[in-house]
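Project standup — Tuesday

K.O.: blocked on the structure for the chain from last sprint. Re-posting the sequence here as requested.
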Amino acid sequence: MARKPNYSFERQERERAEAKKAEAKAAAKAAKRAAKAAGRAEGDETEPSED
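H.V.: unblocked you, prediction finished:
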């Protein structure tokens, strides 16, 4: 016998997952912005040369 669908619960779960993904994306964007403000780009491992 198949289970009875619970559409509202499933929608809430999808919305929670979407919000979590958006929060992670915003946090990564904020971290990248903070790194850029500190004077270094994401993935920049070398020191700038002083010519």
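K.O.: great, moving the ticket to review. The helical segments are 7-37. Residues 14 and 48 are 45 Å apart (CA to CA).
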